């Protein structure tokens, strides 16, 4: 029973760290308004975040309103999970900026 609780705690902490890392990278390394998911993956390569962890965090961050996605070609806003990364651009939102700057606290994001 304790082993399972330890796993859950580790997963929770990793999720928080991943969320914070993604938001920080959007400000520190990818400061342009829109960037591709491929660019984000390249920047995160040193973080050893799996594809599943990245997608899980992106889904959360989008659902929380911290990032948004659009189709690169048409600039139509879309759900990040619904499209191939080659077609997507991402952007930090005003709410995401508030989290990064410490004006809003989210227990699922470690800054």
Count of helical stretches: 4
Number of strands: 4
| Strand order across the largest sheet | 1-4-2-3
Low-confidence stretches: none
What percent of the residues sit in helical stretches (DSSP H or I)?
A: 40-55%
Instruction: Provide the succession of SSEs.
Output: HEHHEEEH
Q: Radius of gyration over alpha carbons?
A: 14 Å
- Share of β-strand residues: 5-15%
> Please, what is the oligomeric state?
single chain
Q: Main sheet?
A: 4 strands, antiparallel
Could you say which overall geometry the principal axes of the C-alpha atoms support?
A: globular
Spatial gap, N to C terminus = 30 Å
Explain this structure:
It is a single chain. The chain is α+β, with helices and mostly antiparallel strands. The chain is 50% helix and 13% strand. It contains four helices and four strands. The protein has a four-stranded antiparallel β-sheet. A hairpin with a 5-residue loop joins strand 2 and strand 3 (77-78). The N and C termini lie far apart (30 Å). The mean pLDDT is 89.
Write the layout of secondary structure elements.
Blueprint: H1 2-28, E1 35-36, H2 37-44, H3 51-63, E2 67-71, E3 77-78, E4 88-92, H4 94-101
Helix pairs in contact: 1-3
Task: Describe this structure in a few short sentences.
By secondary structure, the chain is α+β, with helices and mostly antiparallel strands. Helices cover 50% and strands 13% of the residues.
